[in-house]
Amino acid sequence: MSLAGKTAVVTGSNSGIGLGVARELAKAGADIVLNSFTDRDEDHKLAADLGAEFGVKGRYIKADMSKGAECRALVEQAGQVDILVNNAGIQHVAPIDQFPVEKWDAIIAINLSSAFHTTAAALPLMRKAGWGRIINIASAHGLTASPFKSAYVAAKHGIVGFTKVTALETAEEPITCNAICPGYVLTPLVEAQIPDQMKTHNMSREEVIKKVMLDRQPSKEFATVEEMGGTAVFLCSAAAAQITGTTISVDGGWTAL
After folding, report:
1. Can you give the residue range of the structural domain that contains 250?
2. What is the three-state SS of 214-227?
3. pLDDT (tens digit per residue) in 175-231
4. Would you name the residues annotated as active-site residues?
5. Residue partners of 239: CB distance under 8 A and separation at least 6
């Protein structure tokens, strides 16, 4: 399908899942706005190079997704937002009674509240354009839970609920809102954890991946950023026009357990 003429804003997208989604949307013809909280030359070059590779416009806009005003300013600066992908997120692991308050606040702000702010700012633009797609990157942890991840699980469950409300409020319009729920995805951040896990468990790379990292993922294979991007492109297609308010799990069977 072609997304030519559409503009996609992807939060938290200078690496990992966000960049993978942005890349697939650009491949489908959408102009791309990348985002993170840094403002380096390489950030702007990344966006320009992505645009040049696929013959679309590529821009980078700095915004700290922990701050509501900056989330809304990101949308305002983009000007046109046909596709909004709320991907920005952080993680911290600790027991509830030892969980740092500042980490809880930051995770809720970046993983959940940012989606509220960007969506609130983008909906008027989508309504004016007569078309819109909102895709929230949730997680398998938006549908199930793990110990020591209280803030992350709470935020991702919140994203799933927010997705449903957004879908209901736009149900009679040509705007859809859905959540993608990845399991473990092979990103540079995850890749960097493998050598330490090999040392900790005295296991080979393959053993660490299958027995430790993918213990709860029945396929015993990582999902890829390309698969996340492909799912996002599908949700922007005409075939998905009546798919709204739902979750699509890309988790190798994790949430089937």
Report:
1. 7-185+223-256
2. CCCCCCCCCECHHH
3. 999 999 999 999 988 898 899 899 999 999 999 999 999 999 999 999 999 999 999
4. 152
5. none
